[in-house]
Amino acid sequence: MSNIEEQNLTEFLLEVKAKMVNITTSDNEAINEITSYVLSNTGKFIRSKIIFLYGDEIGVKKSKLIELASAAELIHLSTLVHDDIIDEADIRRNKPTVVKKWGIKKAILYGDFLYTKTFQALNSLDNIAIANELIECAEILIEGEFNQIKIKSDNLISMTQYYDVIEKKTAVLFSGILKCLGIELSLPQKDLEDLKQLGLSFGRAFQINDDLSDFEDSKLTGKAEYKDLSEGKLTLPVIFLMENKNESEQSEIFKFIDTGNFDAVKQLMNDTDSFNRARAEREKAIGNCIEYTKRFIKLDRLDSLKAFLEKTLIA
User: Fold this and answer.
1) Which of 193, 252, 297, 311 is most deeply buried (CB count within 10 A of its CB)?
2) Can you tell me the distance from the alpha carbon of 305 to that of 189, in angstroms, rounded to the nearest whole number?
3) Residue 92: strand, helix, or coil
4) Same domain membership, residue 133 and residue 122
Protein backbone atom coordinates (compact mmCIF):
# COMPACT_ATOMS: atom_id res chain seq x y z
CA MET A 1 0.00 0.00 0.00
CA SER A 2 1.04 3.59 -0.61
CA ASN A 3 1.82 5.94 2.27
CA ILE A 4 -1.56 7.63 1.82
CA GLU A 5 -3.37 4.28 1.90
CA GLU A 6 -1.46 3.26 5.01
CA GLN A 7 -2.36 6.57 6.66
CA ASN A 8 -6.05 6.18 5.75
CA LEU A 9 -6.07 2.67 7.19
CA THR A 10 -4.33 3.81 10.39
CA GLU A 11 -6.85 6.62 10.86
CA PHE A 12 -9.72 4.20 10.25
CA LEU A 13 -8.44 1.74 12.88
CA LEU A 14 -8.14 4.56 15.42
CA GLU A 15 -11.75 5.54 14.73
CA VAL A 16 -12.87 1.93 15.14
CA LYS A 17 -11.10 1.66 18.47
CA ALA A 18 -12.67 4.94 19.64
CA LYS A 19 -16.08 3.59 18.64
CA MET A 20 -15.41 0.39 20.61
CA VAL A 21 -14.50 2.46 23.68
CA ASN A 22 -17.70 4.45 23.29
CA ILE A 23 -19.84 1.31 22.98
CA THR A 24 -18.29 -0.45 25.99
CA THR A 25 -18.04 2.46 28.44
CA SER A 26 -19.88 1.53 31.64
CA ASP A 27 -20.94 3.17 34.90
CA ASN A 28 -19.15 0.29 36.63
CA GLU A 29 -15.46 1.08 37.17
CA ALA A 30 -14.52 -2.60 37.48
CA ILE A 31 -15.88 -3.21 33.99
CA ASN A 32 -14.10 -0.12 32.63
CA GLU A 33 -10.83 -1.35 34.14
CA ILE A 34 -11.08 -4.64 32.26
CA THR A 35 -12.17 -2.89 29.07
CA SER A 36 -9.16 -0.57 29.21
CA TYR A 37 -6.89 -3.57 29.66
CA VAL A 38 -8.50 -5.59 26.85
CA LEU A 39 -8.56 -2.72 24.35
CA SER A 40 -4.89 -2.01 25.01
CA ASN A 41 -4.09 -5.51 23.75
CA THR A 42 -6.41 -6.01 20.78
CA GLY A 43 -3.97 -7.47 18.28
CA LYS A 44 -3.78 -6.60 14.60
CA PHE A 45 -7.44 -5.69 13.94
CA ILE A 46 -7.46 -8.05 10.95
CA ARG A 47 -11.27 -7.99 10.68
CA SER A 48 -11.31 -4.21 10.61
CA LYS A 49 -8.58 -4.13 7.98
CA ILE A 50 -10.57 -6.52 5.78
CA ILE A 51 -13.69 -4.39 6.20
CA PHE A 52 -11.87 -1.18 5.31
CA LEU A 53 -9.83 -2.49 2.38
CA TYR A 54 -12.70 -4.26 0.64
CA GLY A 55 -15.47 -1.93 1.80
CA ASP A 56 -13.69 1.23 0.71
CA GLU A 57 -12.87 -0.37 -2.63
CA ILE A 58 -16.49 -1.27 -3.46
CA GLY A 59 -17.92 2.02 -2.23
CA VAL A 60 -19.32 1.56 1.28
CA LYS A 61 -19.49 4.79 3.32
CA LYS A 62 -16.79 5.15 5.94
CA SER A 63 -19.29 5.69 8.77
CA LYS A 64 -20.90 2.34 7.96
CA LEU A 65 -17.50 0.63 7.83
CA ILE A 66 -16.67 1.95 11.31
CA GLU A 67 -19.97 0.66 12.73
CA LEU A 68 -19.49 -2.77 11.14
CA ALA A 69 -15.82 -3.04 12.16
CA SER A 70 -16.43 -2.07 15.79
CA ALA A 71 -19.25 -4.62 16.09
CA ALA A 72 -17.15 -7.37 14.47
CA GLU A 73 -14.14 -6.66 16.70
CA LEU A 74 -16.31 -6.76 19.84
CA ILE A 75 -17.85 -10.09 18.82
CA HIS A 76 -14.32 -11.40 18.26
CA LEU A 77 -13.08 -10.06 21.60
CA SER A 78 -15.95 -11.62 23.51
CA THR A 79 -15.20 -15.02 21.97
CA LEU A 80 -11.52 -14.67 22.94
CA VAL A 81 -12.44 -13.95 26.57
CA HIS A 82 -14.65 -17.04 26.67
CA ASP A 83 -12.10 -19.16 24.76
CA ASP A 84 -9.44 -18.34 27.34
CA ILE A 85 -11.79 -19.45 30.13
CA ILE A 86 -12.55 -22.74 28.36
CA ASP A 87 -8.88 -23.36 27.52
CA GLU A 88 -7.71 -22.26 30.98
CA ALA A 89 -5.24 -20.02 29.16
CA ASP A 90 -2.92 -17.80 31.18
CA ILE A 91 -1.41 -15.73 28.36
CA ARG A 92 -2.79 -14.04 25.25
CA ARG A 93 -0.56 -11.84 23.08
CA ASN A 94 2.18 -11.99 25.71
CA LYS A 95 -0.06 -10.60 28.48
CA PRO A 96 -2.13 -12.31 31.20
CA THR A 97 -5.63 -13.21 30.04
CA VAL A 98 -8.73 -11.69 31.61
CA VAL A 99 -9.46 -14.95 33.44
CA LYS A 100 -5.88 -15.13 34.76
CA LYS A 101 -5.87 -11.50 35.91
CA TRP A 102 -9.41 -11.15 37.29
CA GLY A 103 -10.59 -14.72 37.90
CA ILE A 104 -13.22 -16.90 36.26
CA LYS A 105 -16.33 -15.17 37.63
CA LYS A 106 -15.40 -11.71 36.38
CA ALA A 107 -14.09 -13.15 33.11
CA ILE A 108 -17.40 -14.88 32.36
CA LEU A 109 -19.38 -11.78 33.26
CA TYR A 110 -17.10 -9.58 31.17
CA GLY A 111 -17.42 -11.83 28.11
CA ASP A 112 -21.19 -11.65 28.52
CA PHE A 113 -20.95 -7.86 28.90
CA LEU A 114 -19.12 -7.59 25.57
CA TYR A 115 -21.76 -9.69 23.83
CA THR A 116 -24.55 -7.57 25.32
CA LYS A 117 -22.96 -4.26 24.31
CA THR A 118 -22.27 -5.61 20.84
CA PHE A 119 -25.89 -6.58 20.30
CA GLN A 120 -26.99 -3.17 21.55
CA ALA A 121 -24.74 -1.64 18.90
CA LEU A 122 -26.16 -3.97 16.24
CA ASN A 123 -29.69 -2.97 17.14
CA SER A 124 -28.79 0.67 16.51
CA LEU A 125 -27.69 -0.05 12.92
CA ASP A 126 -29.93 1.22 10.15
CA ASN A 127 -29.74 -2.10 8.30
CA ILE A 128 -31.51 -4.91 10.15
CA ALA A 129 -30.19 -7.46 7.64
CA ILE A 130 -26.60 -6.65 8.67
CA ALA A 131 -27.50 -6.97 12.35
CA ASN A 132 -29.14 -10.34 11.70
CA GLU A 133 -26.12 -11.55 9.73
CA LEU A 134 -23.70 -10.74 12.56
CA ILE A 135 -26.01 -12.21 15.20
CA GLU A 136 -26.12 -15.43 13.17
CA CYS A 137 -22.30 -15.37 13.00
CA ALA A 138 -22.15 -15.11 16.81
CA GLU A 139 -24.48 -18.10 17.15
CA ILE A 140 -22.33 -20.17 14.79
CA LEU A 141 -19.17 -19.19 16.70
CA ILE A 142 -20.69 -20.62 19.88
CA GLU A 143 -21.73 -23.79 18.05
CA GLY A 144 -18.16 -24.14 16.79
CA GLU A 145 -16.82 -23.94 20.33
CA PHE A 146 -19.17 -26.73 21.41
CA ASN A 147 -17.95 -28.87 18.50
CA GLN A 148 -14.33 -28.21 19.40
CA ILE A 149 -14.91 -29.26 23.01
CA LYS A 150 -16.40 -32.54 21.82
CA ILE A 151 -13.48 -33.17 19.47
CA LYS A 152 -10.93 -32.50 22.25
CA SER A 153 -12.68 -35.07 24.45
CA ASP A 154 -12.66 -37.62 21.60
CA ASN A 155 -8.89 -37.03 21.09
CA LEU A 156 -9.11 -37.57 17.33
CA ILE A 157 -10.37 -35.41 14.50
CA SER A 158 -11.11 -36.05 10.84
CA MET A 159 -10.42 -33.55 8.07
CA THR A 160 -14.18 -33.01 7.73
CA GLN A 161 -14.47 -32.19 11.43
CA TYR A 162 -11.42 -29.93 11.27
CA TYR A 163 -12.79 -27.81 8.44
CA ASP A 164 -16.20 -27.69 10.10
CA VAL A 165 -14.63 -26.33 13.29
CA ILE A 166 -12.45 -23.70 11.61
CA GLU A 167 -15.37 -22.58 9.45
CA LYS A 168 -17.54 -22.09 12.53
CA LYS A 169 -14.84 -20.84 14.91
CA THR A 170 -12.81 -18.59 12.60
CA ALA A 171 -14.00 -18.28 9.02
CA VAL A 172 -17.66 -17.52 9.71
CA LEU A 173 -17.00 -14.02 11.04
CA PHE A 174 -14.78 -13.14 8.07
CA SER A 175 -17.47 -14.41 5.68
CA GLY A 176 -20.16 -12.58 7.61
CA ILE A 177 -18.48 -9.18 7.59
CA LEU A 178 -17.68 -9.35 3.89
CA LYS A 179 -21.24 -10.39 3.10
CA CYS A 180 -22.41 -7.41 5.19
CA LEU A 181 -20.53 -5.08 2.84
CA GLY A 182 -22.61 -6.43 -0.01
CA ILE A 183 -25.82 -6.20 2.02
CA GLU A 184 -25.09 -2.53 2.73
CA LEU A 185 -24.85 -1.86 -1.02
CA SER A 186 -27.86 -4.09 -1.86
CA LEU A 187 -25.71 -6.22 -4.18
CA PRO A 188 -27.27 -9.18 -6.03
CA GLN A 189 -27.45 -12.56 -4.27
CA LYS A 190 -24.64 -13.95 -6.46
CA ASP A 191 -22.30 -11.19 -5.27
CA LEU A 192 -23.32 -11.78 -1.65
CA GLU A 193 -22.46 -15.46 -2.03
CA ASP A 194 -19.10 -14.62 -3.62
CA LEU A 195 -18.28 -12.24 -0.76
CA LYS A 196 -19.22 -14.97 1.70
CA GLN A 197 -16.94 -17.47 -0.08
CA LEU A 198 -14.15 -14.88 -0.14
CA GLY A 199 -14.44 -14.59 3.64
CA LEU A 200 -14.55 -18.35 4.15
CA SER A 201 -11.41 -18.78 2.03
CA PHE A 202 -9.65 -16.02 3.97
CA GLY A 203 -10.72 -17.58 7.28
CA ARG A 204 -9.47 -21.03 6.28
CA ALA A 205 -6.09 -19.65 5.23
CA PHE A 206 -5.94 -17.51 8.38
CA GLN A 207 -6.58 -20.48 10.67
CA ILE A 208 -4.21 -22.85 8.89
CA ASN A 209 -1.52 -20.18 9.09
CA ASP A 210 -2.23 -19.88 12.82
CA ASP A 211 -1.92 -23.67 13.11
CA LEU A 212 1.49 -23.55 11.45
CA SER A 213 2.61 -20.65 13.64
CA ASP A 214 2.13 -22.88 16.69
CA PHE A 215 5.42 -24.50 15.72
CA GLU A 216 7.33 -21.30 14.96
CA ASP A 217 9.45 -19.02 17.15
CA SER A 218 7.15 -16.82 19.24
CA LYS A 219 9.43 -13.82 18.53
CA LEU A 220 8.46 -14.09 14.87
CA THR A 221 4.76 -14.86 15.25
CA GLY A 222 3.77 -13.13 18.50
CA LYS A 223 2.13 -16.39 19.56
CA ALA A 224 3.56 -18.67 22.23
CA GLU A 225 5.19 -21.71 20.65
CA TYR A 226 3.12 -24.89 21.14
CA LYS A 227 0.20 -22.92 22.61
CA ASP A 228 -2.37 -25.00 20.73
CA LEU A 229 -0.65 -28.29 21.51
CA SER A 230 -0.45 -27.45 25.19
CA GLU A 231 -4.22 -26.79 25.19
CA GLY A 232 -4.91 -30.14 23.54
CA LYS A 233 -5.97 -28.69 20.18
CA LEU A 234 -5.29 -30.92 17.20
CA THR A 235 -4.14 -28.52 14.49
CA LEU A 236 -3.84 -29.35 10.79
CA PRO A 237 -0.15 -30.40 10.83
CA VAL A 238 -0.91 -32.77 13.73
CA ILE A 239 -3.90 -34.21 11.90
CA PHE A 240 -1.72 -34.88 8.86
CA LEU A 241 0.87 -36.52 11.13
CA MET A 242 -1.74 -38.81 12.65
CA GLU A 243 -3.39 -39.66 9.35
CA ASN A 244 -1.20 -42.58 8.30
CA LYS A 245 -0.18 -43.79 11.76
CA ASN A 246 -1.44 -47.00 13.31
CA GLU A 247 -3.09 -47.05 16.73
CA SER A 248 0.16 -47.75 18.55
CA GLU A 249 1.98 -44.90 16.78
CA GLN A 250 -0.88 -42.52 17.46
CA SER A 251 -0.81 -43.46 21.15
CA GLU A 252 2.90 -42.65 21.25
CA ILE A 253 2.27 -39.22 19.71
CA PHE A 254 -0.52 -38.52 22.20
CA LYS A 255 1.87 -39.54 24.98
CA PHE A 256 4.36 -36.91 23.76
CA ILE A 257 1.58 -34.31 23.74
CA ASP A 258 0.22 -35.26 27.17
CA THR A 259 3.69 -35.12 28.75
CA GLY A 260 4.59 -31.82 27.09
CA ASN A 261 7.29 -33.29 24.83
CA PHE A 262 6.28 -31.01 21.98
CA ASP A 263 9.73 -30.90 20.41
CA ALA A 264 9.39 -34.63 19.70
CA VAL A 265 6.07 -34.03 17.96
CA LYS A 266 7.60 -31.25 15.89
CA GLN A 267 10.50 -33.50 14.92
CA LEU A 268 8.10 -36.19 13.74
CA MET A 269 6.36 -33.62 11.58
CA ASN A 270 9.68 -32.45 10.17
CA ASP A 271 10.47 -36.08 9.32
CA THR A 272 7.21 -36.42 7.38
CA ASP A 273 5.37 -34.14 4.97
CA SER A 274 2.93 -32.87 7.61
CA PHE A 275 4.07 -29.25 7.48
CA ASN A 276 4.29 -29.17 3.69
CA ARG A 277 0.79 -30.60 3.33
CA ALA A 278 -0.57 -27.98 5.73
CA ARG A 279 1.23 -25.23 3.81
CA ALA A 280 -0.27 -26.57 0.57
CA GLU A 281 -3.76 -26.32 2.09
CA ARG A 282 -3.01 -22.77 3.16
CA GLU A 283 -1.80 -21.85 -0.34
CA LYS A 284 -4.94 -23.38 -1.85
CA ALA A 285 -7.13 -21.27 0.44
CA ILE A 286 -5.11 -18.12 -0.36
CA GLY A 287 -5.48 -18.86 -4.06
CA ASN A 288 -9.26 -19.15 -3.69
CA CYS A 289 -9.28 -15.91 -1.72
CA ILE A 290 -7.43 -14.10 -4.51
CA GLU A 291 -9.75 -15.52 -7.19
CA TYR A 292 -12.82 -14.20 -5.36
CA THR A 293 -11.03 -10.90 -4.74
CA LYS A 294 -10.63 -10.42 -8.50
CA ARG A 295 -14.41 -10.29 -8.83
CA PHE A 296 -14.66 -7.15 -6.69
CA ILE A 297 -11.35 -5.28 -6.98
CA LYS A 298 -10.17 -3.20 -9.92
CA LEU A 299 -7.16 -4.55 -11.76
CA ASP A 300 -4.91 -1.64 -10.78
CA ARG A 301 -5.64 -2.32 -7.08
CA LEU A 302 -5.32 -6.08 -7.21
CA ASP A 303 -1.55 -6.26 -6.60
CA SER A 304 -1.93 -4.18 -3.42
CA LEU A 305 -4.71 -6.44 -2.10
CA LYS A 306 -2.77 -9.58 -3.02
CA ALA A 307 0.26 -8.25 -1.13
CA PHE A 308 -1.93 -7.60 1.93
CA LEU A 309 -3.44 -11.09 1.77
CA GLU A 310 -0.08 -12.81 1.46
CA LYS A 311 1.49 -10.72 4.23
CA THR A 312 -1.46 -11.42 6.53
CA LEU A 313 -1.91 -15.10 5.72
CA ILE A 314 1.68 -16.34 5.60
CA ALA A 315 3.58 -16.39 8.91
Assistant:
1) 297
2) 24
3) strand
4) no
Amino acid at position 168, single letter: K
| pLDDT, tens only, 76-96 | 999 999 989 988 888 888 789
- Where do the H-state alpha helices sit in 93-246? 98-102, 104-123, 128-154, 159-166, 172-184, 189-213, 218-221, 227-230, 236-243
Range(s) of the domain holding residue 43? 1-126
Q: Do 161 and 267 sit in the same domain of this protein?
A: yes
Count H helices, E strands: the chain? 17, 2
Q: What are φ and ψ of residue 92, in 5° steps?
A: -140, 125
* CA–CA gap between residue 265 and residue 271 (Å, rounded): 10
**Amino acid at site 16:** V
Torsion-angle region of residue 61: left (phi > 0), alpha (psi -120 to 50) or beta? Answer: beta
230: exposed, middle or buried (Cβ count in 10 Å: 0-12, 13-18, 19+): middle
Q: Do the beta carbons of residue 118 and residue 82 sit within 8 Å?
A: no
Structure confidence at residue 137 (pLDDT): 93
Terminal-to-terminal C-alpha distance of the chain: 19
Q: What is the pLDDT of residue 95?
A: 87
Q: Are residues 194 and 145 in the same domain?
A: yes
Strand partners, 96: 91
Residue 231 shares a structural domain with residue 157: yes
Looking at the whole model, is its pTM more than 0.85?
yes
Q: Which residues of the chain have pLDDT under 50?
A: none
Of 98, 126, 154, the residue at which a domain comes to its end is 126
Instruction: Please give the Cα distance from 70 to 269 (Å, whole number).
Output: 39
In this predicted model, what pLDDT tens digit does every residue of 51-81 receive, in sequence order? Answer: 999 999 999 999 999 999 999 999 999 999 9
Q: What angle do CA 44, 218, 271 make, to 5 degrees?
A: 125
User: Which H or E element spans position 96?
Assistant: strand 95-96
Contact 184, 285 (CB under 8 A): no
